[in-house]
Design brief:
The protein is about 40% helix and about 20% strand. The chain is of the alpha/beta class. The strands form three sheets. The chain has an eight-stranded mixed beta sheet, with helices on both faces. Strands 1-2-5-4-3-6 form a six-stranded antiparallel β-barrel. The longest helix has 20 residues, at about 235-255.
C-alpha cells in the first residue's frame, strides 16, 4: 500500500522547487449558523469567541452586530436587510467591533449610520475608521464650559443660554417645534466655525428632506453631516445612529474644533432599544424598557464635553430631542434624559397653538451651564427678563376675565406683551447678537411700550436693515468683543429712540 505521507511531502518539495517558493499558512476562521431570524434580530450559534458589539457577516453579504452573548447563543441585531437569510445560513466573524468612517470627506454628505451614501454622490473617501462605542472623556480631561453656542433664538440665547460643550435637552409634545429649534441652532452656525452633525432616527423621508433643504438654503450645508436611519430600514441602524453620529462628531472635536450634534430623537431610539431587547428575550422593566436603557443613553450623552486645552480644546455640544405624551415630563424616558443632561428647553403645546413660536416655557426651562458662557452684554440685559415675563404671564390670566386693573398692572401687562412679541420668531429667522441686543435694549428702556402692535412688528422687521445701515460701527464691536461699554450702550439707545420715533404709528 503506498505511503500517502511520503507522497504529500514529495509533492510539496516538487512544487517548491518548481515555483521557487511556496508559503503554506493555515486559514483559521470561525463559522457559525443562524438558528432563527426575523423582525431585525437573529440568533446565532457556533461562534464561541465572538465579542460584544462585533460585526458579523452573513452569507450573501448581510451585516449584523453581536449585542447579546449568552452561553452557546449570540443575539445579533441586523444592520442590513435580511432577505435571503434563513435558519442554517452561515455566519462569520469579522474580528473587529462595528466601526464607522470619520473625516472631512463626510462634510456636506447624507449617509447612513455605517457611512454608506444616501445622496446621489459616490461613497465618501475616508482614510480612518473609529468604533461606534467609545468611552467618554475622564473628568480630568474636561474643561469648563466658557464659550456660548448662539442659537439665533432670542428666547433661548437670552434666558436659556447654551455653552459649547453642554448637553441641552429639547423636549415637548409632538408637533410643537422641537426639530425647528434644533434646525435654527444649526442654521445660525453659518457665520461661525462650528461643525454640525444631525442624527435623524426613524424619521419620515419627507421630513428629513425638508430639513436638509432648509439647512442647504439657509445654513452651513458644507459643514454639516446628516446621519439618517430611515424609518423603513433595519432597527439596528436606528439603534446605531446616535452612537455613529457621535463618533463622527468626536473626530472633529479631537482636532480642536467645536461641534454641534443634534439627535432627533432619543424617544424613538429608546423605543427601538426596547423593541430589540424584547425580541432578544431580555427581561423587561418599567414601561417594558430593559433595565439598561438608562445606561444606553447616558453613555452616549456623557460623550458631550469641552476638551481640556492639553487635548486640543475642542468641544462637542449635544442637543438631544425627546417627545412627551400630553406634556408628561415624569414618564420614564423624559425623567431619565432630564437627569442626564445639563438643562432642558421645554415646549408647551398651549403656547404653540396660541401662535407663540418658539413655544418655549421659560418658567420650566433651565440651563445649568450656559449662563456662565453667555455674552456679558446679554447677561446684563436679560437679567430681569425672565422675571418680568413670568409676572406678565401671571397677571395676564386675571386681565383676561375683564378684572379691573390699576395703572401699574396695566403697564406690566403692556410691557409683557411687547416682550412676547419680540420673542416670537419664525422658522429659519435666526437673529445675530447685535439684533438681539438692540431688541433687549429697546425693551429695557421701555421704548416699545407706547407703540401699537403694528409698530412693534415694523420694529422687528426693520431692525436688521437699520442696524446694518445706521449702526455698523457698534455691530462690528459687538461681533468682535461680544460686549459694549456703558457709553456705547447709551449711544445705541439714543439711536434706537430716533429709529422708534420714525416708525409708523
Amino acid at each position: 500500500m503506498p505511503n500517502l505521507t511520503d507522497d504529500i511531502v514529495h509533492w510539496a518539495e516538487q512544487a517548491s522547487a518548481d515555483a521557487g517558493r511556496v508559503t503554506v499558512e493555515p486559514d483559521l476562521r470561525e463559522l457559525g449558523g443562524v438558528v432563527r431570524i426575523g423582525d431585525g434580530v437573529a440568533i446565532v450559534d457556533g461562534l464561541p469567541t465572538a465579542r460584544q458589539d462585533e460585526m458579523l457577516r452573513f452569507a450573501g453579504g448581510g451585516l449584523g452586530m453581536a449585542v447579546t452573548l449568552d452561553p452557546g447563543r449570540i443575539g445579533v441585531v441586523m444592520l442590513s436587510p435580511w432577505d435571503g437569510i434563513a435558519a442554517g445560513s452561515r455566519v462569520e466573524r469579522s474580528g473587529d467591533v462595528v466601526r464607522v468612517p470619520v473625516g472631512d470627506a463626510l462634510l456636506g454628505r447624507v449617509i447612513d449610520p455605517l457611512g454608506r451614501p444616501l445622496d446621489t454622490l459616490a461613497a465618501p473617501l475616508c482614510h480612518r475608521t473609529e468604533p461606534v462605542e467609545r468611552p467618554a472623556l475622564a473628568i480630568v480631561d474636561r474643561d469648563l464650559v466658557s464659550r456660548p453656542l448662539a442659537t439665533g433664538i432670542t428666547a433661548i440665547d437670552a434666558m436659556i443660554p447654551i455653552g459649547r460643550g453642554q448637553r441641552e435637552l429639547i423636549i415637548g409634545d409632538r408637533k410643537t417645534g422641537k426639530t425647528a429649534i434644533a434646525a435654527d441652532a444649526v442654521i445660525n452656525q453659518k457665520t461661525s466655525d462650528v461643525v454640525c452633525v444631525w442624527a435623524a432616527i426613524g424619521q419620515r423621508t419627507s421630513s428629513v428632506n425638508r430639513l436638509i433643504d432648509a439647512i442647504t438654503r439657509h445654513g452651513p450645508r458644507e459643514r454639516t453631516i446628516f446621519v439618517v436611519a430611515e424609518a423603513s430600514g433595519p432597527p439596528g441602524l436606528a439603534w446605531l445612529a446616535p452612537y455613529a453620529a457621535c463618533t463622527m462628531a468626536e473626530y472633529f472635536s479631537e482636532q480642536g474644533r467645536d461641534v454641534l450634534l443634534v439627535i432627533d430623537d432619543l424617544t424613538r431610539h429608546a423605543a427601538t432599544h426596547r423593541e430589540v431587547s424584547l425580541l432578544l428575550r431580555r427581561p423587561p422593566g418599567r414601561e417594558a424598557y430593559p433595565g439598561d436603557i438608562f445606561y444606553a443613553q447616558s453613555r452616549l450623552l456623557e460623550r458631550g464635553a469641552r476638551r481640556a486645552a492639553s487635548l486640543g480644546g475642542g468641544s462637542l455640544t449635544i442637543l438631544p430631542i425627546a417627545e412627551t405624551q400630553g406634556g408628561n415630563l415624569t414618564a420614564y424616558i423624559p425623567t431619565n434624559l432630564i437627569s442626564i443632561t445639563d438643562g432642558q428647553i421645554i415646549l408647551d403645546p398651549k403656547l404653540f397653538y396660541e401662535g407663540q413660536k418658539p413655544a418655549v416655557n421659560v418658567g420650566l426651562s433651565v440651563s445649568r451651564v450656559g449662563a456662565k458662557a453667555q455674552p456679558p452684554i446679554l447677561q446684563r440685559l436679560a437679567g430681569s427678563l425672565r422675571l418680568d415675563y413670568a409676572q406678565f404671564l401671571e397677571l395676564e390670566v386675571f386681565t383676561r376675565f375683564g378684572a379691573m386693573a390699576d395703572e401699574h398692572t396695566r403697564r406690566v401687562v403692556e410691557h409683557g406683551r411687547r416682550i412676547r412679541s419680540l420673542l416670537i420668531q419664525g422658522n429659519t429667522q435666526v437673529r445675530p447678537l447685535a439684533e438681539q441686543v438692540a431688541g433687549l435694549l429697546a425693551l429695557g428702556e421701555n421704548l416699545l411700550d407706547p407703540l401699537p402692535p403694528a409698530a412693534v412688528l415694523a420694529f422687528k422687521d426693520g431692525l436688521a436693515a437699520w442696524l446694518a445701515g445706521e449702526c455698523s460701527d457698534l455691530v462690528g464691536r459687538l461681533e468682535a468683543e461680544g460686549d459694549l461699554d456703558s457709553a456705547a450702550c447709551s449711544d445705541l439707545v439714543a439711536r434706537l429712540k430716533r429709529f422708534v420715533a420714525g416708525l409708523p404709528s
